[in-house]
Amino acid sequence: MIRMAEIPKEEYLEKCTTACAGCTSSLTLRYVLKAAGPDTVLVVPACCTSILQGTYPNTAFSVPVYNIAFAAAAACASGMSEAFSSIGKKTNVIVYAGDGGTVDIGIQALSGALERGTDFLYICYDNEAYGNTGMQRSGATPMGARTTTTPGGKTDAKKDIDRIVAAHNIPYQATATPAYPKDLFDKVKTALATPGPSFIHVLAPCPPGWRIASDMSVAVGKMAVKTGSWVLWERKYGELSISAPSKGAMKKRAPLREYLSLQGRFKGISESVVNELEQSIEKNLARLAKEEAGEC
Amino acid sequence: MSDPVAMSRPRIGAAGKTGTWRTFRPVVDREACNACGLCAMYCPDGCINEDLEIDLDYCNGCGICAHECPKKAIRMDREDK
Ligand SMILES: Cc1ncc(C[n+]2csc(CCOP(=O)(O)OP(=O)(O)O)c2C)c(N)n1
Ligand code: SF4
Ligand code: SF4
Ligand code: SF4
Ligand SMILES: [Mg+2]
Question: Which CATH number fits domain A6-292: 3.30.450.20, 2.70.70.10, 3.40.50.970, 3.20.20.70?
Fold first, then answer.
């Protein structure tokens, strides 16, 4: 018998979804549902997750899913959360949305729900492009990444949705990646135990989109953290703490090139774009370190 | 009574037998294994159980288990045609 981390054994995704081999968004959802348990409703705007449920009249998801139009996910969750509380139910309402559906198309509904103090958890799984429709660039695509609509590499920077969400001063906010499943699991637990709105931004390496082999997606997620390209942290009632894997990475960072060179989407990236990415990592790390130390 | 809205119900195999996608099959060397559980933890589809049995009806052969195994105890063997 193998050892299992202190995480419930129950699976809420029936074998199997139609996700691509090596999809870390599926891996994310596996741990989100383990943390949330069966008394949960997922609200899913159009994205890969709409498709990977399977085809009507069957679904691979054993919790109820409300599939809804892009721009409406967080608004739908507001109504649903109110309805549950009016009948005295504690059912978890979780929006599970892609980056396109969050940082671009669903941003006003998200902002509205955060401002209204909706009791829900919004999870953005970020594969850094519009995956389901064939990998067009989104606001969350990083600079230098090739997508089908940025064949020469994206020239704009990744939109910083975490700072936009932070401006709403919500009770709980975090980042995660399923390369560190226990960290992700714990953050979902904390988010659901915190009344009011919570937001978790999950980096989800995507084999076809990032042009990596299917067995490399977890390794790429670890490398994102080790290079500081992705920083794991949580902010509870305004108090920021950097999570253990990123604490380690900040002491001795792996060179950014080691992350970029694993991925076909960064093939041929110019030295100047690598420098810009490096500078934005340094700025972000400095800002987070200062905030954690209470200096801003 | 019929459902008031179009509603799907949970079922194993809702998306078909994804094991048919596989071109490489994970094979565990139990001698080399230290029972750390990382392979089962990282399988995106939860295809590895506590006894380290892999559900080949659904394992799509992604290879993450083999790549993440610290003991290199999982081999990916090409499927016969
Ligand atoms: C209003 C609207 N515009 C466009 C689409 C087509 N569409 C469906 S899924 C999708 C991509 C969503 O990208 P993202 O939110 O990043 O999720 P991912 O597919 O990457 O999981 C698009 C553009 C749609 N369904 N509705
Ligand atoms: S395109 Fe990417 S995110 Fe979508 S199912 Fe495939 S691996 Fe997952
Ligand atoms: S090859 Fe992929 S799907 Fe199959 S058991 Fe290993 S991790 Fe799971
Ligand atoms: S990851 Fe490797 S060593 Fe650990 S339980 Fe799986 S096969 Fe055994
Ligand atoms: Mg996306």
Answer: 3.40.50.970
